[in-house]
Amino acid sequence: MIQRPPAAQGAPAPRAAGGPPGPGGRRRHPLVIARPWLLLAPALAVLAVLLLWPLVRVVLFSLQDYGLREIVSGEANWIGLANYGEVFADPTLYTVVLPNTVGFAVLAVAGTVALGTGVAVLMASLGAFWRTVVGSAIMIAWAMPAVTGTYVWIWIFDADRGIVNSTLQALGLQDEPVNWFTNRWTFYAIVLLNVIHHGFPFVAITILAGLLGVPKEMLEAAEVDGAGPWRRFFSIIVPSLRQVFAVVIILSTIWDFKVFAQVYLMPGGSGTNREALNLGVWSYVESFGQNRYGFGSAIAVLLTLVLLAITVVYVRTLLKEEEL
Amino acid sequence: MTRRTRLAALKAVLVAALLAFTLFPAFWMLSSAFDARAGAAGQGLLPQEFTLANFEYVLTEGGFDVFLRNSAIVALVTVLASAVLALLASVAVARFRFRFRTAMLLMILIVQMVPLEALVIPLFVQVRDLQLLNTLLGLVIVYVALSLPFGIWMLRGFVAAVPKELEEAAYLDGASWGRMFRSVLLPLVMPGLVATSVFSFITAWNEFIFAMTLLGGATENYTVAIGLKQFFGEHSNDWGSIMAASTIITIPVMVFFVLVQRKLASGLVAGAVKG
C-alpha cells in the first residue's frame, strides 16, 4: 500500500567528496553537510513563500479588520480577537455552518468507507474478468474531475429538465418538478451523493489491496471452524486491516471537511442560499463576496485548526507504519 | 435454488447495481453532449438526435478552444517546474541523512492538509501585490507550490528504491555526482517522475478555487475548470454545451489517470491529495 523504502535507505550518505563520515569524532566536509540543503533550497524557497508564509499571513489577517481599504493601502488595522468573537457569536455558525460541515463530513465518511469496503469485499470475491470490469468502472468515477462531476450531478437533479424530476413525474410519483437545491436537506443529499460517488473508489482500491494480502489459509481455517461471513469479516479481516482502515477513514475525513467546489458550484451554493454554507464556503464568500478578508480569514483559521487536529492523528497513524 | 446459485445471483445483482451507480454520471454526460436535444423536454437516455454540434459550438463560438490552450500552458509549465524542484528535493530527502530531515518531511506532509480556502486569501493578496492577478503566470506559481509537497513525498519512495550499489559503482568508476545523477539515478526514477508529473498535470487541470479567484477579471485567461461557467445563462442553462465541454475536460484526465492509477493509489495513501 505505502511504498516501503528499502532497507538501504537508512544507510549513511554516499561516500564521496568528504570521505567516510566515520562514527563520532571526525568532522564531515562542509560540502557534504551543505549538499542536501543545496538540493532542497529551490523547493524549500517555493514552499516557504507560497505555502508557509501565506499560512502565517492568514492568521495575521484574522487578527485585523482587513477589508477593501486595507488591501489597497496595505496598512494593518489590528483588532485582536474581534473577528473570532464575531464568528463565535454568529448564530449562523451553530445553526447552519457547523451542522453542514460536521454533519456532512460524518455522513460522507461513513458512506464512503462503507460503500468502499463493500465494493472491495465484492471485488475480492469476483473472478479476474469481472474484477477488471468493476475496477475500470470505479476508476472512471474516481477520475472524473470534481468540477465536471458536480455539473453532471446538477444537471441530473436540474429543477426544470433534470432526469430525476422527469423520471419521477413519468412514474407519477410527483406532479410538479421539484427544485432540489433550495431545500437544505436535499441540497446536501446531492452533495453527499456526489462526494461518495467520487470518493469511494479510492477506499475500495486501497482496501482491496489490503484484502488480497490477508492470508487465504486463515480465512479457510475460520470457515472450517464454522465462522460465517460476517464473523470472518469482523474477526479476521477488520483486525488485520486496522491500519488501512485508519488511514482511509482519516483521509476521507480530511477531504470531506473541506469540500468546496461541490457546494460552491451548486445552485445557491455560492452564498445566495445561506442555509447551504459550510466552513469553507462561508470563509470564501465573506472574503471575496463581502470583501471582509479578516473575518473570512478567522473562519479559514478555524477550518485549518480542525484539519490540523485530524492531520496529527493521521501522521501518528502513518508513523506507526513506516519509518519516514 | 441452491445456496451457491443464490450467492451467484446476489453477486450479479450487486455488480449490476454498482456499475449503474458508478457509470451513470459519465454516461449521462456523454449522452447529453452528443444529443441535439440535450436540455430539451423529452430528452431520452440515449441521444435521440445524435450530433457533434455541441462540441463544435463550445470549441468555436463558445471560446473553449482558448480555455483549453490556457489550461494546457498552465498545466505543462506547472509539470515541468514542479518535476525539477521535486526531483532535487526528493534526492536530498531520500539519499541524505541530515539535521531536521524528519521535521521537514513532517512539514511537507502537514502542509498538504491545509485547506485551499485558507491559502486563497493570503495568496490572492500576494499575487495581487506582485501584479500577477488575471495572468496565467500567477496561477502557475501557485500550482507549482500546491503540487510540490506531494511530488517530493512520492518521488522520495522512487529515489530510495534505486539500489545504492549502482551509485557506488558509478563512483568507483570515477563518475562525478552530477554525472551519476544524470546517467544512473534519472533513468531509474523516470517512472516515478512520470507518475508525479501526471499528478501535477491533473492538479493544474482540475483546480477550481484559485483559478476562479486569481483569474476572475480576465475571461480570455480562463482555464477549462472555470471556463465552463460561460455556458450558464441567467434564465436557462445550455446543458448540451456544458456537457460537451465537460467531456472535453474529462478525457485527458481519464487517459492520464488510467496510466498511473496504481502508483497514484499508493502515493495517495502517503500524500493525502485527491485529484
UniProtKB/TrEMBL annotation, chain A:
The chain crosses the membrane at residues 37-56, 102-126, 133-156, 185-212, 233-255, 293-315. Residues 98-314 form the ABC transmembrane type-1 domain. It holds the Pfam family BPD_transp_1. Residues 1-18 have a biased composition (Low complexity). It comes from the Bacteria. It is a multi-pass membrane protein. InterPro entries: MetI-like, MetI-like_sf, UgpAE/MalFG_permease. Residues 1-25 are annotated as: Disordered. It is found in: Cell membrane. Its main location: membrane. Keywords: Cell membrane, Membrane, Transmembrane, Transmembrane helix, Transport. Belongs to the binding-protein-dependent transport system permease family. This is Carbohydrate ABC transporter permease. The lineage of its organism: Bacteria, Bacillati, Actinomycetota, Actinomycetes, Micrococcales.
From TrEMBL, chain B:
Keywords: Cell membrane, Membrane, Transmembrane, Transmembrane helix, Transport. It is found in: Cell membrane. Residues 68-260 form the ABC transmembrane type-1 domain. It is a multi-pass membrane protein. PROSITE patterns: ABC_TM1 (PS50928). It holds the Pfam family BPD_transp_1. The keyword Lyase does not apply. InterPro entries: BP-dep_ABC_trans_perm (IPR050901), MetI-like (IPR000515), MetI-like_sf (IPR035906). Its main location: membrane. The chain crosses the membrane at residues 66-91, 103-124, 136-155, 184-205, 239-260. Belongs to the binding-protein-dependent transport system permease family. This is Carbohydrate ABC transporter permease.
